[in-house]
Structure formats: C-alpha cells, structure tokens
Design goal:
Elements (H helix, E strand, L loop, with lengths): L2 H16 L17 H22 L3 H18 L3 H15 L4
Helix pairs in contact: 1-2, 1-3, 2-4, 3-4
Length: 100
C-alpha cells in the first residue's frame, strides 16, 4: 500500500469513527443524532489532524489531490451522502493549506 493509500485509509477510518453512518451499539451516535456543537468540535479536530498528516507525509499538490480523491471514493463507497463528502473535501483542501 502506498503512502497516499495509507493516508487516505487512515483519514477514512478517523472520519468513520467520529461520524458513523449508523448507531453504534445502540448509543445513538450516528451522524444524524450528533448535536451541532459536537459536530463542529469533531470537524475542527479532524481538520487539525488532516493538516498534521499532510505535513507529516510532506505531500504537495498532486500527492494531496490523490489522497483526497481516494478518501472521497472511500466515503462515497461507504454510503456517506455526496453533499456531505463534497463539503468535507473542499474544507479539507482549504484548511490543510492554513498556516498556524
């Protein structure tokens, strides 16, 4: 598995853990049941991890675009709505370039 594949897979697992499509163990933690404040907080943490992962793997534009495309494919295949995936990936692209 390439570095880009590994990065896309790790981001997918993280996103799926933070925003499950279905209730896990009946705890009502599906993405539909999360409060808005919790979603915003989780997204903030996810975007921070995205920035760190991009720096760690030293991905430039083409490598990053490939990783984002693979993540998009994984999320759509898993059943996340196209609208959610599109907004997430646009935000990832813009926030990963943010200078802290």
């Amino acid at each position: 598995m390439s570095k880009i594949d590994q990065l896309a897979e790790s981001l997918f697992v993280k996103f799926q853990h933070d925003f499950p499509l279905t209730d896990t163990k009946g705890a009502g933690k599906s993405i539909k049941n999360l409060p808005k404040k919790s979603i915003e907080q989780r997204l903030g943490q996810f975007y921070q991890e995205v920035r760190e992962a991009r720096r760690k793997h030293r991905l430039w534009v083409i490598g990053w675009a490939r990783a984002v495309l693979k993540l998009q494919q994984r999320l759509l295949t898993a059943g996340y709505p196209n609208e959610v995936v599109s907004k997430l990936l646009l935000a990832m692209i813009f926030t990963s370039n943010k200078v802290d």
